[in-house]
Amino acid sequence: MLLRKLLGDKMALEAKDSFSGVDISEIRKMNALARKDTINLGIGQLPDSLPAAVRDKGIEAFMNGETRYTSNQGFLLLRELAAEYHSEKSGKEISPEQIIITNGAEGALWNILFTYLDRGDEILIPEIAFSVYNTIADLQGARAVPYKQNEDFSIDFENLMEKVSSRVKFLVINSPNNPTGTVLSEEDIRKLTALADEHDFYIISDEIYSELYFGENTPFSPLQCSDKVIVVDGISKRAAATGLRIGWTVASQEITKPMIVANQYITTCASSVSQYAAIASLDGSTGRFVEQVKEDLKMKGEYAFNVLSSIKGIQVVKPQGAFYIFPDISSWGNSKDVAHKILDKVNVLTIPGIAFGERGDRHVRLSFAMDFDVLKEALNRIKDLLENWR
Ligand SMILES: Cc1ncc(COP(=O)(O)O)c(C=O)c1O
Asked: How far apart are CA 245 and CA 304, in angstroms?
């Protein structure tokens, strides 16, 4: 606006209407405030180095000259491995033709929503969710409709039923979950797939954290009991490989076909070197790495839960997967005020829950994927600050 005033009639280039209100996420904004010596519990990735097998495969790709375009859909070998992985997990025959290798899980979400969401369509999204779903839906001119969650972050079905209509094309779930660290029960997922059948919508199941679980039950995928599902997955979290940008979708061939075209026009193909490296994340070479990470996260998640729940006035749900814990800090203020005070007073960075929707404003998100001694120090500082709040 100011620019427009200064330029008089000469208009500055303006972003399209659907972009209005879209800004860098609160997660990125908060992370930008980290100082050199800040303990940063705001980062959404494992601190581990890339598993050696993935690294070596990437080096091999360079050495072998695997540095050219791949097919728009992705390397066949990687798609075969992804298909095998999801066949085993779902108990269904998934073929490589049902997989598209994308630029991270985020690229997979873009392909789905760009291809299928029309202006006026509705997409049901948990009221506390990774902000990308809402943003991409908004950019397509679709309507993102939040559905409520219970205190333990499970789905409030009574509320969800009120939101279901013929305008709904998709419903999003993300289990294990960012930011709550919770896992949806098989029973609830079966209820959702029954609803999808009855009301003719598709479930987008974001399973990017599916290998990182440490609760009692293995996360259940809706693909195990329904065909009205598009799975989003990738290696970013399971292989400590957020920078390689490899994700994928699993869907029927019919649904996949137009998304291959979208992938072509959005990005041509995912990086060939990264696709090659990702082979090692699915061919069994990183099994031990993932097992160790899970054990480590279980211990740290329990520790974080115990420290946080010992603070009077805090409500906290025990994490079962991913590497986040999402305490209710509303006794101390709103999420931005509390997160900023934690940063200013004790130099620990957390993410204000408002980054995940209005209902998140009672919470801050902490990542416990962190060196244990540093995590202990961070939690002690937070506990001390909250117990002596002034
Ligand atoms: C729930 C969820 N989905 C998708 C993504 C995006 O993953 P990627 O880095 O593979 O694009 C993230 C990243 O933090 C996430 O938390």
From this structure: 29
Distance from residue 72's CA to the centre of ligand 1 (Å): 21
The atom number, within ligand 1, closest to the CA of 106 reads 11
211 and 117 in one domain? yes
234 sits in the region (left: phi over 0; alpha: psi -120 to 50; else beta) called left
Order across the sheet with 324-325: list the strands: 324-325, 364-367, 351-352
Looking at the fold, whether 263 and 296 belong to one and the same domain comes out as no
**Does the pLDDT of residue 3 top 60, yes or no?**
no
Domains in the chain, number: 2
Same domain assignment for residues 366 and 292 = yes
Q: What is the pLDDT of residue 4?
A: 59
Residues 126 and 212 reside in one and the same domain: yes
Ligand 1: centre distance to CA 296 (Å): 21
Distance 233 CA to ligand 1 centre (A): 9
Best mutation site among 101, 133, 177, 236 for ligand 1, i.e. most ligand atoms within 8 A of its Cβ?
236
CA separation for the pair 390, 375 (Å, rounded): 24
Whether 298 has a pLDDT exceeding 70, the answer reads yes
Give the pLDDT of residue 2: 57
